[in-house]
Amino acid sequence: MDQRDKRSHDMAKLPIGIFDSGIGGLTVLKTLYNAFPAESFIYVGDLGRSPYGSKAADTVQRYALQITDFLLHQGVKMIVIACNTASAVAGNAVRHRAHPIPVIEVVGCGAKMALEMLPEELSEDARIGILGTDTTVKSEVYVKRINELALKTGLKLPDIQQQACPLFVPLVEEGWWQGELSDKIAERYLHSMKSFEPHVVILGCTHFPLLSGPISRALPEGTVLTDCAPAVVREVRTILDDRGWHAAERTDVAESNRGKTVFYCSDTGDTFRRQAERFLDMTIEFVHHVDLEMYEDGEGLECFPQPI
Amino acid sequence: MDQRDKRSHDMAKLPIGIFDSGIGGLTVLKTLYNAFPAESFIYVGDLGRSPYGSKAADTVQRYALQITDFLLHQGVKMIVIACNTASAVAGNAVRHRAHPIPVIEVVGCGAKMALEMLPEELSEDARIGILGTDTTVKSEVYVKRINELALKTGLKLPDIQQQACPLFVPLVEEGWWQGELSDKIAERYLHSMKSFEPHVVILGCTHFPLLSGPISRALPEGTVLTDCAPAVVREVRTILDDRGWHAAERTDVAESNRGKTVFYCSDTGDTFRRQAERFLDMTIEFVHHVDLEMYEDGEGLECFPQPI
Questions:
Q1: Nearest CA to CA, how far is A171 from chain B (Å)?
Q2: Contact (Cβ atoms closer than 8 angstroms) between residue A208 and residue A165
Q3: Second label for A204, Cα 20 to 30 Å away, from B9, B88, B175, B202?
Q4: How far apart are CA B92 and CA B131, in angstroms?
């Protein structure tokens, strides 16, 4: 085994780090977990300080960097920011801090996906809707990303309309995923989006896919809803392929073996475990408590293995 | 001026500290501010980590103690916990940490008020309803307090029914205080409370008084809603009277002069200021940012003046 193979082999052994302000990112974890059964994951839910969506950009950035430092300290081969708000306001900072560990964030994936989902026959006047939290919408990150991508691929810039839907988050956490009430709230938020008649609507918050029923009903028939999780899977696969970092390539693990998933939460108590079991539809034996404030200003940065 | 008068004079000069997980406690501040125009206040809103209502008891206790240390460090003559969740799970810890500075918390005030509001002719079979966040309801703190108070005053223990209404908080923060949607959500939460036919219902979260319209409509006619703010005013007045700590007694301040109110927030940005202006119906020039994590484990405890 040459030096490059050796390093690649070492990296393959490491888990994938994934984080969110709380439980929403579990929808992304679930998709990754099903797509890559041999991989191990470390999931960090910052439930002690959630939600991020209503907090100032630099507060969220500080929290995201603490989590990044924690994950680097644990040793991960990749970081997935499974929180739209954190992607929106801290994506670049996390990428800079984690370098050379690759960072994937849901906003970039979602923006790319939305453009790909536009009807093929549509040569111009594409209309894209974006639903998110207050902070995500204010950051205009989806608008910027979509425009950048459209320019790069020579597409005409689409018409974009944004709508903040902050109440969707507690609605999902309350478990009211269906029924009259969620329909009413969706109608109230999406009144003007409906008149806009978007071709594609980005569910720009990891909680929102759980409300896709009420959201669909509040929009014109045939509106395509895009959820970023499948796009994240694609990006993760590309990195694992390109670098030879698939866990299944570890000589000591049979492909049929499931990787391990470890959960860390900044809140104590049982809330995270109970909600996570509902989101993931599986039993979770144990959730570790983590004091993220300990990971301020790049502590623990020396310990993570250097990728090739 | 003898030594005791001198100390009392020094204490009178200090502001009253008041804190909440975010903006809900501003409803208490507003009532205090109107009742005691000569007093100065320091308000701390932990918006960077709000809401508390869904977080574990020991997480909330840790946050509440950090804020207590911050307030003691600033120098205050009294601390008002204007957050039901923090009162419920951290009241005793804050009292212990702040001693001998007096601590007033909304739960004790609300429980007392509810018993006083029961119809006089009612000799037994009193029914009290309690609405709160998840954490407040789980802590059963109102139930315990009401029973303790009832026992002390020789009343028969009332029948008590609790209901967690977590969605009320973001509903208020979204500004949807009236209208069909808030009525629907109130109906959904209060269905079983309605059949219980309570004489008095405690609004056990500082956000809830802003939804008193929808809450009233979802309950049987004639149900008395109690809000703890007036009871807090009474407790504050008693302490100021007993100890001679009224700010107006400062020789250097005319009674007509308004005290100052200073705002600290753990989130940055403009959200707190904007929401606070709406809650208080006044202009706020400046909100200081405070990093509460700095105040871990009793830092700054030496600096506060000893009361008499």
A1: 7
A2: yes
A3: B175
A4: 22
Please give, rounded to a whole number of angstroms, the shortest distance from the CA of B39 to a CA of chain A. Answer: 31
The neighbouring-strand residues paired with A128 are: A160, A200
Is the CA virtual torsion A271, A273, A275, A276 positive or negative?
positive
Q: Over the stretch B135-155, which tens digit does the pLDDT of each residue have?
A: 899 989 999 999 999 999 888
- State the helix-helix crossing angle for A229-243 and A106-117, rounded to 10 degrees: 110
Q: Which residues of B touch A (CB under 8 A)?
A: 47-49, 54-59, 134, 166-167, 169-171, 173-174, 176, 180-181, 184-185, 188, 266-271, 293
Which CATH topology does B3-105+230-294 take? Rossmann fold (3.40.50)
The phi and psi torsions of B42 (rounded to 5 degrees) equal -115, 120
For residue A270, the chain B residues in CB contact (below 8 A) are: 56
| Chain A, nearest residue to B21 by Cα | A49
Q: Edge-to-edge strands of the sheet including B261-265?
A: B103-105, B78-81, B16-20, B41-45, B261-265, B287-289
Strands (E), B93-242: 103-105, 127-132, 159-164, 200-203, 224-226
Residue among A166, A184, A267 minimizing CB distance to B170: A166
- DSSP of A58-126, one letter per residue? HHHHHHHHHHHHHHHHH--SEEEE--HHHHHHHHHHHHHHHTTS-EEEHHHHHHHHHHHHS-TT--S--
Contact between B10 and B245 under an 8 Å Cβ cutoff? The reply is: no
Q: Matching CATH topology for A3-105+230-294 and A108-227?
A: yes
Give me the mean pLDDT over the B263-289 stretch: 89
- Give the residues across from B45 on adjacent strands: B20, B265
User: What residue has token string 């018993």?
Assistant: B115
Residues of A in contact with B58 (CB under 8 A): 268-269
Q: Which residue has the tokens 């429980």?
A: B111
Q: Where are the domains of chain B?
A: 3-105+230-294, 108-227
The pLDDT value given to residue B307: 37
The hierarchical CATH code for the domain A108-227 is: 3.40.50.1860
Which segment of B123-127, B157-161, B178-182, B206-210 scores lowest on mean pLDDT?
B123-127
As annotated, the active-site residues of B are 83, 205
Residue B72 has pLDDT above 90, yes or no: yes
Query: Tens digit of pLDDT per residue, chain A (308 long)?
Result: 677 777 777 899 999 999 999 998 999 999 998 899 999 999 999 999 999 988 999 999 999 999 999 999 999 999 999 999 999 999 999 999 999 999 999 999 999 999 999 887 776 789 999 999 988 999 899 999 999 999 998 888 999 999 999 999 989 988 888 889 999 999 999 999 999 999 999 999 999 999 999 999 999 999 999 988 989 999 999 999 999 999 875 445 444 567 899 999 999 878 899 888 888 888 898 999 999 988 876 544 443 343 33
Spell out which chain A residues touch chain B, with contact meaning CB-CB distance below 8 angstroms: 47-49, 54-59, 134, 166-167, 169-171, 173-174, 176, 180-181, 184-185, 188, 266-271, 293
